[in-house]
Amino acid sequence: MSPQANLHIAHIVDLRVIGGIERMALELILATPQVRHSLVLFDKHIHPSLATPLAQAAQVVGIYSSKHWGSVRLPKSLRAGRRRQLIQQSGADVVLNWSQVLDTRGIVTPIVFYEHGSAWERYSTEQLQQCYHNIHHCIAVSQAAKRMLQLHHGVTQPITVIENTVFKQPNVNTQPRTLPTGRLVLGAAGRLVARKNFAVLIEAVAWLREQGRDVSLHIAGTGPDLERLQQRVQRLGLSEHVRLLGYVEDMDAFYQQCDVFVCPSIWESYGLVAIEAFAAGLPVIGAATDGLPEVVSDGINGVCIPPHWDGEAFTAAMHEAATFDRDYSYRALTDSMEAQQSLSPAGIATAVTVLMDDAERYHNMSRAALQAALAIKSYPQLAAAVLASVAEARA
């Protein structure tokens, strides 16, 4: 009998918002109808785009809120106990914790921790001990994520690296792109939050236009920083050149409308958007830290820029407080943690200029991007690997 036969997984996950990890949890559940799934959530509220498919999935045998006992909302001090009770009552064989650093003490069911970005966050020693003390093993979406778990969170249990992938196989362009003779359209995508660093990218567009470069920027995504970014666009006089598109349903069409993709994030655990951009033949520009260089090969299918703005330099130049000045990034070259830094507008603009001034380089990078997209594993392959790893905890 297969180790996955009759497997029942209890998922600890927060589905109140929609992001990469929430979509990953949903897609894994939908891709494994042979497994029973119970969901132990933070709250009764589920993002509308997740609620309907979960309600229609027969493999989901229970959805529970650790914040509630019936109609009663529990204080924080009782929620860890409620979570333990719900997991025990579910009868699950294994717990899959979706990157939630929380108190798991007293949970006797084997726990697998799926690292998808929490290793870059700051927690107290007590919080880390309460979370990791009784896990069976971890799954990390990149080598950078594995090392951050070890170096930053002090995890000593085994860690399996299962590289991330896209949810559906991308429609890969058949021909590489040629450098446009007119305006160059930069693309970016992600939640509008400080970590994604879109303010610096907007400043890079201003820098390029001041240098006489005909560029525009399209950003796909929603989030709490929308108004702040809109104000920066207006202040820089870029309203005709920077478009904040909000939620984009057809991302394939979005990528096709761009010429170069920029990922200015302070850190990325992997860099899924880069794969999506590759499928459209787009060279990708981003930071030479954390997980992105595992996707983007510098000088081959994109440009990886060493960030050099520390918190003080960022605050002085951007006229807003840096949110990363006490955090760390992973540097593969030294296999070590270093203080987080930001790309600068000039650094991004220089990389864009190099591509704009070399049509052959741009064309070759586009060809390499397509080759990288064709080599990406399918989501069913990832789901099978994750399921096999989770099943090991039951053995």
From TrEMBL:
Keyword Ligase recorded: no
Limits of the Glycosyl transferase family domain: 178-320
Signal peptide limits: none
CDD domains linked: GT4_PimA-like
Boundaries of every Glycosyltransferase subfamily 4-like N-terminal domain copy: 18-166
Annotated keywords: Glycosyltransferase, Transferase
ATP-binding as UniProt keyword: no
Protein's UniProt name: Glycosyltransferase family 4 protein
Organism: Vitreoscilla massiliensis
